[in-house]
Write a structure and sequence with these properties.
This protein has 26 helices and no strands. By secondary structure, it is an all-alpha fold. Among the domains are: 70 residues, Tetratricopeptide repeat domain (Serine Threonine Protein Phosphatase 5, Tetratricopeptide repeat), CATH 1.25.40; 50 residues, no CATH class. Helix 5 runs antiparallel to helix 6, helix 16 runs antiparallel to helix 17 and helix 21 packs antiparallel against helix 22.
Length: 468
């Protein structure tokens, strides 16, 4: 019956073609292609939609919108060259057409043509928030912060509730026009509470910067906050302004080197300039230590942190940093001694006791004598700290006390159910007790809950190892 219906449709089409003549046949075929295109578009089959719209446009050249539709569909399918070709053949473009033309040029690596398309689109649709949004992204890719700022301001005038536009504008203003940044950041966090932590970080820095009299140091303070919220290209711009404001600011040069590394550059020249200006700055030494760590030169890493510790002998952070360098050098005994020294310098800070316990547990050294007592001390100092309880569970697990480990880890997860490291430790604890079902379920949870994170990746590795 289905074949009969198909045959009847073919017969009807043939009859219609014969009745209408060649002109009618073209019209009929063109409309048929248009219908196929619209159905494919509705089904998000953009490849077939683009193909059918292009055929319809060839058969029905007086329907100007078909070329645009073909171009937009081709762009949606990722065929940007075809999109550009069709959109240029369109007599006029809608707002959507201009957006796609600019985007297609951008994706094809032609930012100049993309810019022209955005500008021409805005001449025709001056009230398009979407065109301004795309223009802002284009300027962002070129690190043209001034023009990105202006595009975002225009976008916000047309779309006051756009959270990202307010947030991004606030970040840009933090180092371009710091007096106007807080209002934009506040609006962003009020529209989306998930941004509140990042907003508070930058706002705090802006408030501190407002009390500083040296312009270069203000920009360093702001740049550091931008780095903390992982906006390193903007942090780099802030540090560049800082060294332009005061070329003798060693800290600004050191942070510039760090930002350059974070954005894929070498950074060593800026760091060398920093140490030439102030070889007694612990910030300079610390950032140079990070640099040597990244390039695998652990001897020089240790030297930098040793100098920092000499300058600030009572700062436990430098003991930990030296311990890390020695650990990477393969000198576990020296690392253990420096971690222990950190707890002596800060006996009431649970962080250093926790780090000492983790060092012992991860490396299987002095767990009974040092590691477990250190973890217990961390919990004693911070009994409601999920990280401290997780560390205690890890230490118990490493010493073979599986029941105690499970108890501590469950307490940690009651406080912070999303502490994935504790879930990983719990799964490992289950495995050593032979409880493979619970271990599997726990690892699956972490894998799915943290698909792009380090704990999610660790869970995948453990699943592959124990549940092939």
């Amino acid at each position: 019956m289905k074949n009969m219906r198909g045959l009847n449709w073919v017969n009807i089409a043939i009859v219609l073609v014969l009745l209408l003549g060649s002109g009618g046949a073209v019209l009929f075929l063109g409309k048929s292609e248009e219908m196929h295109a619209e159905q494919a578009w509705a089904e998000m089959d953009y490849s077939n939609a683009a193909r059918s719209y292009t055929r319809a446009a060839q058969l029905l050249p007086w329907q100007a919108d078909l070329r645009e539709k073909a171009g937009v569909a081709a762009g949606m399918n990722g065929n940007f060259t075809e999109a550009i070709s069709n959109l240029h053949l369109a007599h006029t473009l809608s707002e959507q057409g201009w957006i796609m033309l600019a985007y297609a040029y951008f994706q094809n690596g032609d930012p100049a043509s993309a810019l022209t398309a955005y500008q021409n689109g805005l001449k025709n649709f001056p009230s398009s928030a979407s065109l301004y949004s795309g223009l802002a992204v284009l300027y962002r890719s070129q690190e043209d912060w001034i023009n990105e700022k202006e595009a975002l301001q225009n976008q916000i005038q047309l779309d006051e509730k756009n959270v990202y536009a307010h947030y991004r504008l606030g970040l840009l203003l933090s180092f371009l026009e710091s007096d106007n940044a807080i209002s934009e950041l506040t609006i962003a966090s009020s529209l989306d509470l998930q941004l509140d932590s990042a907003v508070q970080t930058v706002r705090t820095a802006l408030n501190i910067a407002s009390t500083q009299t040296d312009e270069s140091q203000k920009l360093v303070t702001i740049g550091r906050s931008l780095g903390l919220v992982q906006e390193w290209p903007l942090a780099l711009a802030s540090f560049e302004k800082a060294v332009q404001s005061n070329a003798e600011n060693a800290e600004a040069w050191a942070w510039l080197g760090e930002a350059e590394q974070q954005t894929g550059q070498d950074g060593s020249d800026a760091l060398d300039q920093a140490v030439s200006l102030d070889d007694e700055s612990v910030i300079v030494r610390a950032l140079r230590g990070l640099h040597w760590s990244r390039v695998g030169n652990y001897e020089r890493m240790l030297a930098e942190y040793s100098l920092a510790a000499r300058i600030e002998p009572e700062n436990p952070a430098w003991q930990i940093a030296m311990g890390d360098a020695n650990l990477k050098r393969g000198d576990l005994a020296a690392a253990l001694g420096q971690y222990k020294r950190a707890t002596e310098l800060a006996p009431d800070d649970p962080t250093y006791w926790r780090l000492l316990a983790i060092l012992c547990a991860e490396n299987g050294v002095a767990i009974e004598e040092v590691g477990l007592p250190a973890a217990q001390k961390a919990v004693e100092l911070a009994p409601k700290d999920a990280l401290a309880l997780d560390t205690l569970g890890f230490a118990y697990f490493s010493s073979g006390r599986y029941a105690s480990a499970e108890d501590a880890l469950m307490q940690a997860l009651e406080i912070d159910p999303q502490l994935y490291a504790a879930h990983i430790h719990l799964a490992m604890n289950y495995l050593l007790q032979g409880n493979k079902t619970s271990a599997y379920q726990t690892l699956i949870y972490v894998r799915d809950a943290d698909p792009n994170g380090a704990d999610g990746e660790h869970a995948k590795q453990l699943l592959a190892q124990h549940f092939p």
